[in-house]
Structures are given as structure tokens and as C-alpha cells.
Structure prediction request, 99 residues.
Amino acid sequence: MDLHDVDRRLNRFLGSLEKCASKENAEHIRRFVDYCFSIGLSKLRVLKYVSMLVKISRVMKKPFDHASKEDIKRFVGWVERGRFSPWTKQSYKVALKNS
Prediction:
């Protein structure tokens, strides 16, 4: 029994990536999802990473492949200044680092 309905939520996110992120970032996220499953991460962890990467894509407003060191610093600064819990801040940084 899937209490969190992870399969449906993950499929919904993956199916609507182009609406949420640029075409380049959507493809990057899909490849990252394949990688996550290949190393044995749970569907719930992958869902968390996907949702965070979509948010990162929206905030950065550019393809991940074109993000500069300054863009990444700016994003991390945005996270640190935000009203996020320490766990959420750490999760954003881990998602960014691992992708």
C-alpha cells in the first residue's frame, strides 16, 4: 500500500516537466531520475529530488548546463535566506550537488 501515492505523483511530475522546467532541464531531470533509480534510491526520495530540481529550474531561469558558479552561489544564497527548515535547505543543496 502506497500511503503517499508516490507512483502517481512521480509520474505526474515526470509527465509535466516541460510545463515546469525548460526543455533542457526537463531532459536533465529525466536522466537524473534514471541515475537515482540505478543507484537504488527510493521512489519517495526521487520524487523529492525531482520536485526540488523543478524549483531550482524555476528560480535559476536557465538551463542547468549553462549555470555558472555565480548562478549556483546565488541560488544557494536564496535558499539560505529563505524561510526553509534546516532539513529543506540541506535537501536543496544535496539535490543540486547530486544532479
Q: What stands out?
A: Residues 43-60 form the longest helix (18 residues).
